[in-house]
Amino acid sequence: MFPKPKLRLELRDVCHKSTSLFLKNFDSSKDFAELVETVLTRLYSIPDHKDVSTTGPIPAHTMIPGTRSVTLILRDMDGVAYTTGTDLDSDHKEIHLSLSYLNHVASQKPGYSARTEILGVVCHELVHCFQWNGNGTCNGGLIEGIADWVRLNAGYIPPHWKREAGKSWDSGYQNTGYFLDWIEKSRGIGSVYKINQALCNKEYKNDKFWDHLFGKDVGSLWKEYAESLKKSKEEESDSHGDPNLKMQIRIKKEVEGHD
Ligand SMILES: [Zn+2]
């Protein structure tokens, strides 16, 4: 059982048209607590020791931060959202969500709803309320990558997200999120759990951190990831070039009279 922090909602401008959009798409009594559960399950479920895909040592104890409350604040501001501790006590978190951003979200692409975007953004910010950060020393790209890895796994995937090896492993957000997803698949279920646990009350040192967990430095892991993406793209284009498949498509078109 995970801890159940106090959850609060603060509407700073009830007359703003995005406030009603938010309330229509976010059931605060249900969605908020469910998202907390989603985040804690993905960050803190202890990997199965007997699972063959789990590699390397698993910490003996799971450490979860003592976050006592999360206040979701809707207000008019620039940007999308951010998370902070309150001035008095960092165990009390505040998520600030931009009303003007929600206004822009209302005109989303077909097939992607405002509700999915709201759940996705709140999910990402909730990760910041519950993840470890190496006592503030962790690489910012990794912090953001873990948040988007959770969002990815929870299924709130925006249409512009792409699985690609961008500029560097730590350019953050979905770029690092997909990289972590690959680590989880190639190095075993529980890899992100172990990364997060290794950031608990310990300083983050880039040269030792990854080698200690996966026996390789992060540059080599990133290279391996980029190569695996290239390989799967090649395989994909090979299957598109399949003459058998092309023939089938041509026949289908002829039968349907499209050609
Ligand atoms: Zn973030």
State the gist of this model.
The protein has one domain. Helices cover 51% and strands 10% of the residues.
Largest sheet: 4 strands, mixed
Strand percentage, roughly? Answer: 5-15%
Radius of gyration: 21 Å
Mean pLDDT: 88
Strand line-up of the largest beta sheet? 1-2-4-3
Helix % is 40-55%
Number of strands: 4
Q: Unreliable stretches, pLDDT < 50, 5 or more residues? A: none
Gap between N and C termini:
60 Å
- Tell me, what's the shape? globular
H/E topology pattern:
EHHEEEHHHHHHHH
| Count of helix runs | 10
* Domain unit count: 1
Given the helix and strand composition, which structural class is it? alpha/beta
What is bound: which ligands? zinc ion
Organism: Aureobasidium pullulans EXF-150
Protein name: Plant basic secretory protein
InterPro entries: Uncharacterised_BSP
